[in-house]
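Quick illustration for those who missed Monday's session on complexes.
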Amino acid sequence: MREFLTRLPKAELHLHIEGSLEPELMFALANRNGIELPYDSVDAVRAAYEFDDLQSFLDLYYQGMSVLRTADDFFDLAMDYFRRAHAEGVVHVELSFDPQAHLSRGVELSTQIDGLLRAMREGERKLGLSTALILSFLRDRSAEDALDVLEKAAPYWEALDAVGLDSAEFGNPPSKFAAVFERARELGIPRIAHAGEEGPASYVREALESLDVCRIDHGVRCLEDASVVDTLRDRRIPLTVCPLSNVRLKVVEDMRDHPLPTLLDAGLVLTINSDDPAYFGGGVLDNYLACHEAFEWSRETFAQLARNALNVAFMSDARRRELLAELDACQASDA
Ligand code: ADE
Ligand code: ZN
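Prediction with adenine bound:
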């Protein structure tokens, strides 16, 4: 099964690029930039990755990304991730980034985006990946701050495949960002949002109604309201589920308690993703493998999940046809 899941052409639709920062690169960038880290070794960093909830993770996540200062840092971060993803059979990567977290440290938007776009071109050229860029707003900051970032990003609107919404969910409902997402809609930029990760099912409904999103990141708590599940199914709204993340952030106790099988039975459009692979124990392949161990799904089920991701990814029609054909060939060679 490992061999099959590796070969399967997988798309990563829910990845915070800052969450792909491995401790080794964190130290290398800290040295390069003359930054003192509160750890004395790579092992000490890894040992600190024990989380009680989303907020306890976010505290370390924002601290870790403070080593990113120059466009080369953002380039190296993304390339480091692309190489690992490519090695595990990932063919398309949609990377979210958190511009406000860098702007407040004095790192310009142009520094961030120039480094990321350069890596995306390099990943396409050298590794044959396709890529997409998602600008995420921090929901624990004000709506005005988010709107300000969206306007600042004007030179890059064309380069953005979507805007998203992340960070601390409790107390920061989607409706808080209705005006920002309306502005993105006017600009013709697609919209997605984290909802129903730690927050209630009502936030999933709000993201659909107030933000007009085309995908929900996580969304696992939709199961607490049957009417929300019905809406997601009827409108074929995809969920980008991140099982290892949900275990590490204690959204669920154990992989075996993960609601993925129930979500599948409910007829939802599901995809499997990594969220923050450096913090949660692995990339897309590890997430597929964790599902294999916990649920023993058939190859057809895994192929369907990979197909869902290709169907709903931000990519050209030509690229989608090419990757769907690769997926068909992978399944046929296996029959
Ligand atoms: N930012 C990075 N990872 C996140 C997650 N799992 N939920 C919300 N915000 C995030
Ligand atoms: Zn996320």
